[in-house]
Amino acid sequence: MHESSRRTRGKVRWSKLYSFSCLRPHTSDPDSAQELIGQPGFSRVVFCNEPQLHKRKPYKYTSNSVSTKKYTAVTFLPKALFEQFRRVANLYFLLTAALSITSLAPVKPLTLIGPLVFVVGISMLKEAVEDWYRFLQDLNVNNRTVKARAENGLFVDKLWREISVGDVVKVKKDEYFSSDLLLLSSSYEDGVCYVETMNLDGETSLKIKRSLEATLHLNEDAKFSVFKATTRCEDPNPSLYTFVGNLEFESKIYPLSPTQILLRDSKLRNTDYVYGAVIFSGHDTKVVRNSTMSPSKRSRLEKKMDKVIYLLFSMLLLISLVTSIGSSVVIKSDMSQWWYLSLEDSDPLFDPSNPSKSGFLQFIRALILYGYLIPISLYVSIEIVKMLQARFINKDKKMYDEATCKSVQARTSNLNEELGQVEIILSDKTGTLTCNQMEFRKCSIAGFSYGGNINEVDIAASKRMNTDSEAYRSSIDQSDTTSQSLEMSEFSVVDIIAQQAILRGHENADNSNARNSRLSDVRKESVIKGFNFRDDRLMNNQWIYRSDFFYMTMFFRVMALCHTGIPVEDGQTDKLKYEAESPEEVAFLIASQEFGFQFFQRTQSLMTLKELDPSSGKQVKREYKLLNLLEFSSSRKRMSVIVRDEDGKIYLLCKGADSIIFDRLADNGGAYLESTTSHLSNYAEDGFRTLAFAYRALELAEYEQWNSIFTQAKTTVGPEREELLEHATEMIEKELILLGVVAVEDKLQKGVLECIDKLAQAGIKIWLLTGDKKETAINIGFSCSLLRQDMKQFHVCLSKETESKKPAEVAHRHWHIQITRLVKKHTGKTTLAIGDGANDVGMIQEADIGVGISGMEGMQAVMASNFSLPQFRFLERLLIVHGHWCYKRISKMVLYSVYKNIAFGLTLFYYEILTNFSGDSLYDDWYMVVFNVFLTSMPVISLGVFEQDVSSDVCLQFPSLYRQGLRNIIFSWSRVVGWILNGIVAASVIFLANVYIFSAAAFRQEGHVADITQFGAIMYTCIIWTVNCQIALIITHFTWIQHLFIWGSVLLWYIFALAYGALPPDYSQRGFNILTESIGAAPLYWVATFLVTIAALLPYFTHIAVQSLLSPMDDHIIREMKHGKKDVTENQMWLREQRNSQRSTQVGFSARVDARIRSFKEGLSLKRISIYNKSATNTPFYKSWTSSPLFS
Amino acid sequence: MEATDRVILAFQKGIQSDPNIQSLLNKNFPACKPILTPRWVVSTFMLIAIVFIPIGIACLIGSRDVVEVVERYETECIPVLNRTNTVQFIQSDADKTCNISMTIPKRMKQPIYVYYQLDNFYQNHRRYVKSRSDEQLKSASKENDTSACKPEDIANGRGAIVPCGLIAWSLFNDTYSFSRQNQSLTVNKKGIAWKSDKQKRFGKNVFPKNFQGGGLVGGATLNESIPLNEQEDLMVWMRTAALPTFRKLYGKIEVDLEEKEVINVTLMNYYNTYSFNGKKKLVLSTTSWIGGRNDFLGIAYLTVGMISFALSMGFTIVYFVKPRRLGDPYLLIMEQRSWIALKMFVEFF
C-alpha cells in the first residue's frame, strides 16, 4: 500500500497544473455565503464522529436507506386502485359494475364485475410485481457495506442503511460513497482525492476533491478516537455543484466549499482511501434529491386510441339513445294492450303512464348492456403485449453489445409503438455520435498532403458504378471485352482521382490488405488508439529522407510542445500515454510520438522531448524551457507556447484555427498557402477537424521586451486585465511562418455512419444538438454525412442569455429542453432524443421518446430515458425493425379489438329492436363474460407479439417501409372508420342471416323450434368463428402459436359450451345441455355457422383482394417480391430496387455516394462531348451508355 | 425509475438462456407467411363458389322436401257479428268453437308436426322473459321461490302460484282436433318438449297449484293432478321464443296424409291475440334434415356462391386485362415520394 501511494505521489499533481485552474469550483462569494449559515435553509447541524447525538430530535435526520418503492403493503390497494380507475374506460366499467347491482341491470352483476375484476386484477398484479423488483433493488443498494467507525474505535463493515449522520467512514479505492460525506483526509499527504462522478453527471473525467488543512492529519484509524467537530451547513437540496457550510473544529471555524464534499454514488478513484464524515444521508443526499425519474409518457398511438374509445363511447350513447327513445315510444303507444305483460302492476321500466321516465331508465340499462362496444380487455392486452414486446427488444441478440456486455433495454414498455413513428431525432454529439476521442488522420506539411487522399465515399461510389455498369452490361448481353476497356478508358479521362478511386475500389474490395500506401483503409481499426494514419512517406521515420525535413521537424515540435498535456506511464511499453485538456491534444501527442518526437516529461517550466535527429537518425533527449503559455480560448481560437531550446533560440510555436493563423502570417510565411488551403477544404469535407500550425523565431531582445509587457498585463488586477492580455498576445502572435495543417477525426462511434444513413432513408430527420462551436458542429455534420458540400447550410444559433448567471452545464441543459420543446411544438412530429450525459437529461425527458446511451457508466441519462442502448448504432434496428413492427402490431391490435367488440356489441342492439327495446340480452350471461376475456383475447395477444409484416432483414433493406409509421397510414382515421364499418357489416350479416335462418320453422328434423337460448348460442358461435377468422386474415406471419391461439379459441368455445352445458341446470340454466341435446345435433346449426362466417368475412376479403390488385401497400409488394424469391433469382434487380427506394433521401452516406456518382457522370458527359464526334455517337456502345441506368 | 424496467431486467436474467425465446427471435422459427396473390384470390373465390353452390342446392332441396300447410284463423274464427269488437268477444264466455279445413297440397309422410304460430307476440320481452322461477319448477320444496314472478307470484291468500310468472300465466290455450273424412286423427302430444326439460328442469313432484288463481285469468289452466314434468304444452311454451313471430309445437300426427286430402280442424279459439293484433296460424309440416320449410338458407348459400363466382371471374378478367406484375417494385409508393431535405440543426452559444 505504501509502495503504491508513493508511486502515485511521484506523479504530477493535476491540481498544480495551471491548465486545470478552470476546473476549480467557483463559489460565487464565499464570505456572503458564510453569513447565511444559521438562517432558514441553512440550519443543518452535524456532529462529526458523534452519531449517537443524531439519535434524538432535533438532530435526528433521515436514515441512509433509500426507497424507490411506489407502494407499501398498506397503501398498495388504495393507491393502485386509484391508478387503475383514472382511466376513463375503467371508470365507465366501474360505474356499470356498480349499477349492475341495482335492478336496472340487464344482466347478472357477475357479468359486469367479473371482467372488470379480471382486467384490473391483472394490471394491479403487474404493478405489484414491478414494485417488488424495485424493492429488491433497494434492498441490494441498502445492503452494500462500508467501513464505519464503531463505538469501540474500530472501523468495521456496516450496511449502508445503518450508516447515520455524523458517522466517520473510510472509503477505499473504487468504492462508491454511501452518502454525502465531508472529506476529512485521504491517503495523499495533501488531502486530495480523485472522484469519478459519472453516475451523477455522466462526465468521465476525474474530479479533484481536497480536504481542509485542519483535518489533514486525520489519516489513520486511531486518530479518530479524539476527533470531534461540528458542521453547520445548508439544508438538503438537489444542487450538485454548490455547498455552503462551515466546520467548527478545535474551536476554530473553517468555511467549507463543494471541494470538501464527496457525493453519494460517485466513486473514489486513484486514491487508496479517504476518511469522511456523513453530512447528508439517504433521501437527504444530493444525488437522491436530484434523481430524475423518467416521466411517464404516452405514445401518440395510445392517445389516438383514447379518441377511438371516445368514438365508441359516442356510438354507445347513440344506440342507447335510440333504444331509450324506441322504448318510450313503444311503451306509450301500444304496449298497454299487451295483456301478457300484465303492465297494471307498475314496473318503473315499463310504465305506460310515465313513458319518459321508463325511457330514461331504459337508457341507463342500455348503457350497461351495450358496454360490449368498449373493448374492456384492450388496455390489459395491450399492457401484456407491450411487456412481451419489450422482452423481445431486450432479448434481440443483434442489439447486444459485446464490448460492454449490455443489451438494449426498454425501460418503459409503453412507448414501443412510438418507436415506429419517430420523425425527428435530436442527438447529443459527444459520447453519443462520437467517442470523444480524436484520431490523427491526415496532415499537410509544407504543401504536401500526407495520409491518403481517397475517402470512403469515392470508394463506395466507384464500387456502385462498377456494379451498375456490370449489371447493365450483362443485361444487354454485351459483355465483350472491348466495351469494358473502352469504358475504363472513358473513366480514365474524367479525373485522375476518380480513376484511382475506381481501380482502388476494385482492389480494395478484392484484397483489403493490399499494400497501398496512399489509400488509408478506413474500415480497418487503427492499431494505436488515437492514431489512424498511414503513409510510408512519413511513417517509420522515413520523413527524414524528405527534402523539407526542416519544416517537418518544426511541425512535429509544434505538435509535441504546444499543448497542456502531461505524459502518463504505460508500464508495458516505452510508448507513453497522455492526459490533456482536450482529446485533440492527446491525438497530437500520440502522433508526434509516432513520428519520433516523444514528449516524455513536464515540470512547471521544462518540457523534455525525445527527438529523432534527422542528421544522425538517432533519438536524442532535448529540453525546452517553457517561457510562456498563451492559453487557448474560444475567442482567440489559437494557442501558443514560447520556448527556448538548448541552443538558446527562442521560438513561438502556435496552433489554431486556419483563418486565424492565415491572418497572422509573415509576408514570406505563406509559401505553401495555396496548396495548404486546398488540402484544408478536402479535409473539411471529409468531416475532419483541422488546425493550422505555425511558428516564429524570436530574437532575445524582442522577447524580453514583450515579456515585460506581458508580465505586467498578467499582474494587473481589475477589469482591464483581459484586454491588456489580449493586446499583449496580439503583439507577439504575428509574422508567423506556416508549417501546415493537421486533420483529426472526431472519432464516430462504431456503426454511426451506417445507422444515420439508414435512418435518413427511413425518412427520419436528424438534428444535432451540441454545445460545441459552430465549426466543430459542421465538421461532425460532414463526418456523419449529414452535410454535403453541395448543400445549402442553415445555421440556427441562439444567443446566450447574458443576465443568467447559471453555470454552463445548467444553461446547456436548459437550452436543450427549450429546443426540444420548440421542435415538438412547431413540427408537431414525434421526437426522439438521444444522449448519454447528465446534460442531456432535460431533452431526454422532454422528448416524446428519451433514449440513453448505457455504454458508459454514467447512469443519469439512462435513468431518465425510456430506452437505453449500449451504442448509438442500435438505434437503427430499434427504430426500423422493432419500432416498425411494434407500431404495426399495436395498430392492428387496436383496430381489430374495435372491430370485434362492434361485431359482438351491435348484435345485442339489433336484438333489442326485435324485443321492442325491452333491454333483454340475447346471450347467456356467461357467454358475455368469456367473450372478451377468454374466447377472443389470446389471438389478439399473439398478433401483438409475433406479427411481422416483413422480416427484420427486409425491414433493414427497405428502410422506407418505416414511412408507413411516419404517415401513420395503419392507424389513420380512415382505417379506424373502415374497421368500424367492417364491424357493423359483420354484426349485420351475422344477425340478419341468423334471424332469417332460424325464424319460425323448425330447425331440427325432430320438429323443434329454436328458443332464445338456442338462438343466442347459434349466433354466438357465428360471432366467435367470424372474429377469429377475421384475425387470421389480418395476420401475415403465422407460426404454430398463432394457429394454436386462433383455432384454439374457436375450439375453446365448444369446450366451454360443452362444459357449461354439462353443469346441472341450477348453474347452467338456459345453457343446459345446449350443445349435446339441441343445437349440436342439428345439421342446420353447422351449415348456418359456415355460411354466416364466410358471408361476414366476404366484404373484408374482397376489399383486401381489390386493394392488393389495384393499390397494394409497400409491405405487400415487398412480401410478394420476397415470396417470388426475387431476392435470390434477380439479385441485381433486388439491389437496384432497394437503392431506388432509398433515392429520395438527401442526407446520409448513400446520398453522399449518389452525389459523388452524379458529379462523376457530369464529368463523364462533359468529356464525352469533347472526345466523341458525331460518328461516335452512332456506335452501339454509345447508345447503350446513354440508355443505361447510370444516366437515367 | 420507471416501473416496467425492473420486471424486464428480471425477465432478462431468466430468459438469457431460454432457447425458445431465442429461436422465436431468430428466423429459424418455422413460420408461414401467406400472401394474397391474384392466384390465391381467384382460387379462394372459386373455392367458395364450388363449395357453396352445391350446399345451397342441397339446402334448397332439403327445404323443398318439406310439405307445409299454413292456415290463418284468428279472424275466421270470430263470428262475423263480433268482428268489430274481437277483444270483447274473446274475453266473453261465448262459444268459441270454430271449424276450419286444410287441404294437403302434397303427400305428407308421418310424423307430421302440428304447430301454432303467433305473430306480434313478444315472448322475448324482458319483463316477460324474466317472469319465471326455474327453482320452483324444478323442486316442490322451492315452491315459494317466486320473487321473480311478480305480479303472478302469489294467489290472494292461498300461497304461491305454481308455476308462477307471466310466461306460465299466459299459456296458450287454443286446442285443435283434426279429422279427415269424418274420421278423427290422433294428435300425439307426447314427446314435443325437450328431453332435458322433462328430466331436469321440470320436477316430477311439482304439481300445479293456485294456477290462474291470482285474479285475472291469463291463458290455459293446468290439470293439478299431473306433475309439471308431464305438462309438455307448458314446457314448450316456457321455452320462450327469440323473435316476435314464432311457432310452437302442438303435437304430432303419426299417420301419412295424402295429396288433396282435406283435413277438418275443430278448434277452440280461446287465446286472446286480438288485444295486440296478433295473428294466429295453424301449421302442419313435415321435416327434412334441415328442419322445417325454409328456403332462405339455400338461397343465401347460392347467392354467396354466385357472388364469389362472379368475383372470381371478375378478378380473372382484371388480371388478364390489366395485369400487375407480382412484386413489381416500381409500385413501391415510397419511391414516388420525394421527401423534404432533412436538415441538420446546429445549436451553439
From TrEMBL, chain A:
It catalyses: ATP + H2O + phospholipidSide 1 = ADP + phosphate + phospholipidSide 2. One of its GO terms (cellular component) is plasma membrane. Keywords: ATP-binding, Magnesium, Membrane, Metal-binding, Nucleotide-binding, Translocase, Transmembrane, Transmembrane helix. Residues 862-1112 form the P-type ATPase C-terminal domain. It is found in: Membrane. The active site is at residue 428. Its cofactor is Mg(2+). This is Phospholipid-transporting ATPase. PROSITE patterns: ATPASE_E1_E2 (PS00154). Residues 46-113 form the P-type ATPase N-terminal domain. InterPro entries: ATPase_P-typ_cyto_dom_N, ATPase_P-typ_P_site, ATPase_P-typ_TM_dom_sf, ATPase_P-typ_transduc_dom_A_sf, HAD-like_sf, HAD_sf, P-type_ATPase_IV, P-type_ATPase_N. Mg(2+) binds at residues 428, 430, 836, 840. GO terms for molecular function: ATP binding; ATP hydrolysis activity; ATPase-coupled intramembrane lipid transporter activity; magnesium ion binding. GO terms for biological process: phospholipid translocation. ATP binds at residues 428-430, 585, 632, 655, 689, 770-772, 839-840. The chain crosses the membrane at residues 308-331, 360-382, 894-914, 926-946, 976-997, 1017-1037, 1044-1063, 1083-1101. It comes from the Eukaryota. It comes from Salix koriyanagi. Belongs to the cation transport ATPase (P-type) (TC 3.A.3) family. Type IV subfamily. Its EC number is 7.6.2.1.
From TrEMBL, chain B:
It is a multi-pass membrane protein. It comes from the Eukaryota. Keywords: Membrane, Transmembrane, Transmembrane helix. It holds the Pfam family CDC50. It is found in: Membrane. GO terms for cellular component: endoplasmic reticulum; Golgi apparatus; plasma membrane. Residues 133-152 are annotated as: Disordered. The keyword Transmembrane applies. The chain crosses the membrane at residues 40-62, 299-321. Belongs to the CDC50/LEM3 family. This is ALA-interacting subunit. It comes from Salix koriyanagi.
